[in-house]
Design brief:
The structure is a single chain. This protein is an alpha+beta fold and 170 residues long. It has a single domain, classed as Zincin-like, CATH 3.30.2010.10. 38% of the residues lie in helices and 18% in strands. A 3-stranded mixed β-sheet has the order 1-3-2. A hairpin with a 6-residue loop joins strand 2 and strand 3. It is globular and about 45 Å long. It starts with 23 loop residues before the first helix and ends with a helix. Bound molecules: zinc ion. Zinc ion binds next to helix 3.
């Protein structure tokens, strides 16, 4: 099902009754946050820290991760940013949106528990972390491409499909 804002409802993942239909800001963010919490639970053993999900229309990108992007004035609370492109939310299939979200969550995981290379670069460790959640990286966008480098996302739907299937019973 696709709603008025173009963001399909993840099956069993998000209770749309909680969201006022006239409030696209809450509707969109509630769905993204719920999906984030769902994947943090299912795929990352709840170990990802706070994050702030934003909507950014940066051209040529579906989403991005920026560590320590936001904080309170006294620096007692710091949050990473996971940005999603709202144009992309409207135009792509739910699986692709959730893969992008999961991809950015892996960047978050690597930042806090691994050794990231420079921004935007997918190193060997990143490729391995992606495989662990059922996704692969490829420089060419094809399965035959190099898994490391400045990469485009290639999906295997496995993790997302398994996670969504498991959620339908509650
Ligand atoms: Zn990436």
């Amino acid at each position: 099902m696709i709603d008025d804002f173009g963001f399909p409802h993840p099956v069993g993942c998000i209770d749309t009754k909680e969201v006022a239909p006239s409030d696209p800001i809450s509707a969109t963010y509630t769905r993204l946050i719920t999906a984030y919490e769902f994947f943090n639970h299912r795929l990352f053993a709840e170990r990802l820290p706070y994050r702030l999900i934003t909507l950014q229309r940066r051209s040529g990108t579906f989403g991005y991760f920026a560590g320590d992007r936001f904080g309170t004035r006294d620096r007692t609370a710091i949050a990473d940013e996971i940005a999603m492109n709202p144009v992309y939310l409207r135009e792509h299939r739910l699986e692709e949106v959730l893969q992008t979200l999961t991809h950015e969550m892996v960047h978050c995981e690597q930042r806090h528990f691994g050794k990231p290379s420079r921004a935007g670069y997918h190193n060997k460790e990143f490729a391995a972390m992606m495989r662990r959640v059922g996704l692969v990286t490829s420089t060419t966008g094809l399965p035959s491409g190099n898994p490391t480098g400045i990469a485009s996302l290639v999906s295997t739907l496995r993790a997302t499909a398994v996670a969504l299937e498991g959620s339908s019973g509650g």
